[in-house]
Structures are given as C-alpha cells and as structure tokens.
Amino acid sequence: MLFLLVIPVIVVVALAHQYLQIYAPSNLLVARVRESVPRWWTALGLLALGGSILFVMHLLAVAVAAGAPGLVNVLVLVLAWDALKILALAGWVAARRFIASVRRRGALGAECPPGDRSAIAGPG
Fold first, then answer.
1. Mapped to the 3 state alphabet, what secondary structure does 34-62 carry?
2. Is the pLDDT score of 114 beyond 90?
3. Cα 22 from Cα 36, distance rounded (Å)
C-alpha cells in the first residue's frame, strides 16, 4: 500500500529532473560548450563566470551569516553547485584544447599511420 503512494512522487521527481536537464540555464551552457570546438577563450570565459558565481555565492553566505533569511541558503547551494559545474567544464574544455593542440603538432603520434610506432618509440 505504501508503495502505491511512492509511485506518484517518483513520477513527479523524474519529470522535474527531465525538465531541469532540458531547460536549466547552466545545463544549456554545458550542452552548448560541449558541442562547440574547444578554445582557450572559452575556457577562460568559463573560469571567469565560475569565479563570479563563487563571489556572489560568498556574498550571499556572508549575508545569511549576518542575519538574512535562512531561505537564502538554498540560493547559496544552487550557486555553489553551478560554480562547481562551470569550473569543472572550464577544466574539461582546457584539457580538450590542450590535447587537440598536442595532437595537431604530432607529439602524441596522431600523424603516424596506424600500426607505425616509430615516431613514438624513437630510433632503433
């Protein structure tokens, strides 16, 4: 009987999760950045955005500590999550850009034909 009460809650939570995955601004940003070509400027812009969000989060946390309504803590948590997500995305873009630039220069053997390891192994 209790299981029948849980099913509607699970359905509502699943629908809310799906809605947020599609329409939340930070998720839209992540989807757009992951589809684009990695650039250093993108990584720097994401670092700046993540730092700005962390700064606003800190200001709100100080305001809560000074007596602001406790409901502001929810906003602090959402900003903290978004900042972590955006900073991780910046690291991911920078890593993709670094790997692409190294491969373009041939340092990882990307220009070698398949099976030919001579450029990687060296002479001898």
1. HHCCCCHHHHHHHHHHHHHHHHHHHHHHH
2. no
3. 18
